[in-house]
Amino acid sequence: MTIERDAGPVTPAGLDPVTFEVLKNAFATAVDLMSEQIMRTCYSFVIYARDFSSALCDASGGTVMQGSADIAVHVGTLHFQCRAVLEEFGDDIGPGDVFAVNDPYRGGTHFNDVSFIRPIFAGSELIGFAQNKGHWADIGGNVPGSFDVNAKEHFSEGLRITPVRVWHRGKQLHDVARLLVSNTRSPYSCMGDLNAQAEATAVCEREVLRLVDRYGKDTVVAAMAGVQDYVERIVRRKLAELPHGEWHAVDHLDADPGSPEGLVPVSVRMRIDDEGIHYDLTGSAPAVSTFLNSGYGTTHSALYAGTKTFFPDVPLNSGLYRVVHADLGPEGTVVNAAWPTAVTGFCSGPYEKLMNALFEIWSQVVPERAMACAFNLEYLLVGGRDGRTEERPYFMWYDWMAGGWGGRNGKDGSGATAPVFGPGLAVQPVEGQERLSPVLTSRHSIVTDSGGPGRYRGGCGLEKGGVLTDCESTVMSYCCDRARSITWGIAGGLPSVPHGVWLNKGTDEERFLGATFSNVPIEPGDSFTRPSAGGGGYGDPLTRDPELVVEDVIDGYVSVERAAKDYGVVIRPIDPELDQYEVDTAATEELRASIAAQRRDWLAEDPHAVARRYRAGELDMLDVIRRYGVVLDWGTGELHENTTRQYRELLQKRSAAHWA
């Protein structure tokens, strides 16, 4: 192990570099033990699939250390929530206390994410906090799972927990605990998670106090401060090696239901100077009339996580936060929503749009790490009464998917990967889902042609389907986006595929439900399916090595048809059963020249004519998106005129401007 000789700060406690390194890693172990505890004791299948995070904070609430596999969005908010407890209770905090909070308007994420915060005392002195945040499968509100797309205010979304004491000096306040869980559709499970999360924070407390016994309180406290100083120094040193200047990028939500059709901008301006990194979001749209808005905590978290993606070797704690300065603009925007604006869908809305906008910006600053857009986080919720038992209890089938990340400079994008929202998020095992809910999984496989074409292809997405079995009073809700602001490529790369749910696809009752909806009634026997997008492509797809396209065809990532349409590579099947194909070199050269001569004209064709050809079956969805830059209602084929105009402008900038 290489230890930086200046890693350990000089302190009154005489903290030497070796002791500093030992304690830095011991803090990480303490947080990881907290995570292991919650994995073994939680009641919720959602939390078991790693939709939780943990952190150790100092006495002022600053984050000292996160867990090794935590969800990025959670970690970037934990210091806000810790400080909310300090603001609320001040000196009235003692050993054995545990506080709960989920308030998005006090720096939290959304109402389902409930944090438990335990102060750590060395004798009579408060030296830190242990915190665990877990996603409860339900927190009340209008729909099972608490994801109500139609919500305009938080009152429709579930229970808002301002900082509240749940344990007092080691004794659980049972009335408070019952009040919290009784506002959910699964009080038994939530009570189990409540106890498991609180006990997990006790594990971290135990580990920190063990370090105090061994090294002394002053040394441990100095190391907590030193870890944050260490990260700040590393980041500032890296910034000094980068160009200073200003950059700008815009990503989009699909639509605002309360406004005319058109993409909704999430704008990011970034400046690097001697003081650090400065983000300005003042060009972002007003809050939308649905739940796809972000509070200040999650917006800051997106900026932290998007920045750290380009500094993968830097730990994430408040030392990084000191270097990142943000102007979120006025309250009331889609990135700075104030109470009581609905915010539960922030994760699929502004959060991932901010991260991908930062990817585009940092790809210009650090081009060797450039990466195109990644697929959008999505949640599908099916809830109702489980008819498999006489009691007919509530069930929540709560599912998210892996998908593709963007193509990179020199490498294809990662396929079937957790979302940028939280790379530690696990895909739920279908066997567990089927045991817990009356939903059978009918399909779960990679989607051919879902990776955005490019010199370096975007990673592929997945398709997952299900069938309702013995259920009653059941509804479906979906939190996603990018049915219209489709996952995009950069440096000449092309887009992926749209998100969206199909009900009873391939039958007379087929319906495209879109990428955001709530409370859709469904019955036993109904089937549903949805893809996750792949990542956008990086670089001109006509410059991709034809032999790599053949390998993609063999692997099932690209079809022979789209190899020709997207990459201009003509492939002759010799024996597909034995994965034997060959490139027709002469035909490929001719086709690539033909596509290069026509593709700018395709982006200027009358979009109404393109829509008519789609409805007539002359063009497929990928033709419409990738060749013509046209966005439709994918169920009816209706043209989204304003969206198409905006989408074409973006394609011109990100793709066509880089074609030879």
TrEMBL record:
GO terms for molecular function: 5-oxoprolinase (ATP-hydrolyzing) activity; N-methylhydantoinase (ATP-hydrolyzing) activity. The keyword Flavoprotein does not apply. The keyword Cytoplasm does not apply. It is an enzyme of class 3 (hydrolase). Keywords: Hydrolase. It comes from the Bacteria. Residues 16-541 form the Hydantoinase B/oxoprolinase domain. Pfam families: Hydantoinase_B (PF02538). InterPro entries: Hydantoinase_B (IPR003692), Oxoprolinase-like (IPR045079). GO terms for biological process: glutathione metabolic process. GO terms for cellular component: cytosol. Its EC number is 3.5.2.14. This is N-methylhydantoinase B. It comes from Saccharopolyspora hordei.
